[in-house]
Amino acid sequence: MLQDGSPLGDSQTDSTAGSNAKRHLLNQEYIKRGKIKKGTIYGLGSVQYKNSSPSVPIHVSLQRNLDVDMRMSGFETTISEFKEEITGVKEDFSALKAEIYAFKTKVTGGMSASQATLNTILQTLQSHAFTPASTAQPSQPQALFCQFMY
To answer: Which of 25-39, 78-92, 129-143 has the lowest mean pLDDT?
Structure first.
């Protein structure tokens, strides 16, 4: 594994206590190399990290990457909050549309009811006022009513 003067040696047939000691020495070697070198850092076990800018010390690069990760998680949180707010605004607009439609229906229904009432009153007045002497008069209230409504 380590070819440049590693204290481990080549024997792979030691007992489990010996292999645990080797694992400990290997981990120490990884840590030592990670502190000294710039460039690629080999993590403990299967974890590996590649330093993208070898001219920067390892701890600076790790801190920069941590900062970037924290910013990204902050952006993700903000975006999810905005999505929730947009959903709330959509629901509010849907409720407002329903209320406007109900108000429009109520006003239109009220206008048609008042128009029907006025037509009934006009018909009643026409039937009471209809005499043979005044045949031209029944058309005048209707003309006035039509002008009044429009």
So the answer is: 129-143
- Comparing 8 with 73, the larger pLDDT belongs to 73
Angle of the 58-129 helix axis to the 139-149 helix axis, nearest 10? 170
Burial state string for 79-104 with b = 16 or more CB within 10 A and e = fewer than 16: eeeeeeeeeeeeeeeeeeeeeeeeee
Residue 14 pLDDT exceeds 80: no
CB within 8 A of 8, min separation 6: which ones?
1, 2, 22, 25, 26, 29
Sign of CA dihedral 48, 50, 56, 62: negative
pTM value is 0.37
Helix (H), strand (E) counts: the chain: 3, 2
Do residues 141 and 149 touch, judged by C-beta distance below 8 A? Answer: no
Domain range summary for the chain, segments of one domain joined by +: 1-54, 56-150
